[in-house]
Amino acid sequence: MAGRAAVPEVIWARPERTGRGPRPAFTRADIAAAAVRLADAGGLDAVSMRHVAAELGCGTMSLYNYVPRKEDLYELMVDAVSGEHDLFEPTGDWRADMLRNARQTKALMHRHPWMVRLMSGVYGFSPNALRYLEHCLACLDPLEAPYGTKIELVAMLNGCVTTYVSNELSTAERVRSLPWSEEQENAVRIAYLGGQVASGAYPRLAASFAEDSGPIDLDAVFERMLGRVLDGFSPRG
Amino acid sequence: MAGRAAVPEVIWARPERTGRGPRPAFTRADIAAAAVRLADAGGLDAVSMRHVAAELGCGTMSLYNYVPRKEDLYELMVDAVSGEHDLFEPTGDWRADMLRNARQTKALMHRHPWMVRLMSGVYGFSPNALRYLEHCLACLDPLEAPYGTKIELVAMLNGCVTTYVSNELSTAERVRSLPWSEEQENAVRIAYLGGQVASGAYPRLAASFAEDSGPIDLDAVFERMLGRVLDGFSPRG
DNA sequence: CCTAGTTACGTACAGCGTACGTAGTGCGCT
DNA sequence: AGCGCACTACGTACGCTGTACGTAACTAGG
Fold it and tell me: Tens digit of pLDDT for each residue in B92-108?
């Protein structure tokens, strides 16, 4: 009766099983996996309590026994894919190791494009996130710096990767739910942008368009960015 | 009759006024201002088509004459606050100027905390965003580098500022709509985190907690971050 | 054994974005 | 001048959302 208290809690602090009552039909991992499956297939908007419940084959409201709020479902999802990180053995070369981590994160976000929308809004203290953070700190053992600085490094690198992928995917993820194609969308935007630039109101922007730099190599842009971030933390850099 | 085509378009490409028919009762600026007012007062979730219409004093569906999709309303909002940037005269010291721009952006996002949620998802080619970009490029005139690099700089700096503020505000903006206080929320999260760290599963994380570095000076963290980003673009840096 | 705490889930409500139909208005063209 | 069309305005309605609440079945601890 009175067990339905609306009390502040982190889902990770609430035990998955308390012992009383019937055996739960699912684990948190089941639920997270179902939600991730839906998001991968149909974007984040396809993840509704009803859809996840249907995917699991249970009533909608039964989900609330496992996940008190929708936001907690998001936390489960983020934790689940955070577990996809390969926590390799540090090599002793912290720069190379962190590059590897960053590339992995990028690949992970390409696999799960909805992640970028969840990263800004979820806390990042889920078990797998903590494991990943600990792994990064292990990679940074060779770097002589206080832990505070190392955590700043990890945060900045992750942030940059997220922002980068977010820009990369901003059309792709959005376009999924629109009734027209990405080509159309881009064509319209480029036409508009070209018109603006041609208006003469933005001379430097126009110059940058005119600058002949060949086709943009996104991978190179990404790698340059990583290098710059790491440079900022290298001794005598 | 047939004028309600669902055609891909950027709202900025659609003229605000076509000449035919009755005078529109509002300008885009009116609508953006109303939405911004609501978001400032009640968070982004308070911005619904119905609420904005009520704030303007018109019927809900009338809004759709001005704003074909909700997403376009978001674009109007982002453009409106982008116009709050002070496009000062460049001083010739590109580093100082970009620092000033970044600090301004941070202040702007503190004034409108909902912006961080919109920044990842909106395109950023609105008139005021273009003006701001052009201004940044003007500040970067003294830097000898191709425009491609300068744009990478602006993107990275903006991205880092956004990420930083996002982390800073992740609780604050969220907590607004929860039925308990931020103190409670934080207490619960810290208790949980402390427990995890104390479990011994994360030795380096535990060490970083134990590290005595005095109270965290967020402003200093922010400034360090800016410095590192700019260092990555400084000649012989 | 009993009972308190859980699981399961149907119903219901308030709110959302928005498709569509209709009525009224005034510019542009003939 | 006046016809017609593009536009504004907006009520109604639909399908969807998160989730509060009530009820019935179940099981482990006292």
Answer: 999 999 999 999 999 99
